[in-house]
Design goal:
homodimer, 262 residues, Chorismate lyase, 2 domains, six-stranded antiparallel sheet, two-stranded antiparallel ribbon, 32% strand, DNA-binding, transcription regulation (chains A, B), DNA-binding transcription factor activity (chains A, B)
DNA sequence: TAGTGGTCTAGACCACACC
DNA sequence: GTGTGGTCTAGACCACTAT
């Protein structure tokens, strides 16, 4: 068993009211923040920490659990505990749905990702007709049945986002929108060809901890929240023609918006 | 010790590969999701769960720790574990900085909150000159020193947001902007009076788990992420005149934006 | 095979809330 | 005082990774 380099971690203060496992977590957190453990570096093993602090393994594990909950570390069974690397984030610009970005043969996600030097993938593509939920109905203005397009997006092999688009059946049924591949420019281009010229989009942004199925689908490290984004597309008649419900790994994205001052 | 109503929680599957504490967490999560425990309701105590499942207290506590990490429960020392109530969220509309909302005698936060039936407060107000960080300098276009305006917002006594505004000293020094109370319409109104007519704002939105000091300041329950929002205000000359760095309790807000289609 | 983290037992004492 | 959750001990066995 290797030992911990001197000066990296201090000693506990037995007179403190702060629980031992919190003090240990504080010291590890500080060491990470100050770069004494760099991104991707391995923290001391549990047995090293047990020896260093003179506490039992359970206490040390509680401390490590705090860091895990804060998203600072990833724990790999049989290997060790590592400082979680901060992956490069993808910036979603406020003009990402502008018509001028739509004249490509590829989907917007693919174009943007390749421009950023990443390897994009789309999988789990599923298109089917469904009964609408009350929330989707309210946003679409009372469609009982909808066309649902589900997919998952990956960057460099890592899942980053799931999305479900809901469209009223009277618009989408028996059109290219109901095909797995809707063609160049995506469903927004098809909607405009079908006479629904797009006017604007509304997006609602929330953040929360993921549900267990989201952890699985997005392969989320523990301590990583999700951004929940619901976008509604309106045509020039003021009709809601699509609702897109998106769940994104929060460590993969930064959203950018522009707001008018007037 | 009361006992658990029959049918609410099942039994463990000893043949399953899934760890006992995960199975217990699954059953409690399902019971919460299905409304068998309602918002604010008390879950069975640890000793009740120990008896029900025939596992030790440590195993039961691990299960409860999962739910806590998911933000599903709040744990109150000496009282019990409760289903976390979903507080009403405050909707931040995309036109919230429009000039027409600025002609009030009160701050925008106060006006909106009162309209929504909440009791708003602003505290921890602090205004001072500071050295700029590299990030703020880059956003403002190289101001070495800045005026920093720090404050914390509360709704009905609960802290929901901290914000720091940074303004270049050559704009803000010796103006009402440097006063604790900048007057009606806030600093944006003062900026326009000083000749910096506002053109637009840019916002960057991220989500992450809070740092320990943010947990304290915002009194965050465990399992609640924060929304980190950085807004830059530009005047009609294209100059960045303010950067506002905001950390919001993610369970208190939903952000709404409008995007153009053209 | 050795080292790592994951799960679990069976206790103990403490701090806090409520009656 | 009783019941609650918070902290901690001192073990045990297992599963996974690396060599």
């Amino acid at each position: 068993m290797a030992s911990i380099p001197p000066g990296v971690l201090g000693a506990l203060d037995p007179t403190s009211d702060r629980a031992a496992f919190r003090q240990i977590a504080d010291q590890l957190r500080e060491a990470i923040d100050k770069g004494r453990f760099k991104e991707g570096a391995k923290l001391p093993s549990e047995s090293e920490l047990v020896e260093h602090y003179g506490k039992t393994r359970m206490t040390v594990r509680n401390a490590l659990g705090i860091l895990q909950g804060e998203g600072l570390t990833v724990h790999e069974h049989g290997r060790g505990v590592f400082v979680r690397p901060r992956p490069p984030v993808k910036r979603l610009a406020s003009d990402r749905f502008a018509r001028r970005h739509r004249d490509q043969g590829k989907a917007a996600f693919v174009v943007e990702a390749e421009a950023a030097g990443s390897r994009p993938e789309v999988d789990s593509l599923e298109v089917r007709e469904e009964r609408s939920t009350p929330d989707i109905s309210a946003r679409l203005g009372s469609a009982r049945k909808v066309l649902a397009r589900r997919r998952r997006y990956l960057l460099d092999g890592k899942p980053v986002e799931t999305a479900v688009s809901y469209l009223p059946l009277d618009i989408a049924r028996n059109t290219p929108i109901a095909e797995p591949n809707p063609g160049p420019g995506g469903i927004y281009a098809r909607l405009e060809e079908l006479g629904h010229e797009l006017d604007h989009f509304e997006e609602e942004v929330r953040a929360r901890m993921p549900a267990p199925d989201e952890v699985k689908t997005l392969r989320l490290a523990s301590g990583v929240p999700v951004i929940h984004l619901v976008r509604t597309a309106y045509d020039t008649d003021g009709r809601a023609v699509e609702v897109c419900d998106t769940v994104m790994s929060a460590d993969a994205y930064v959203l950018a918006y522009q707001l008018p001052a007037s």
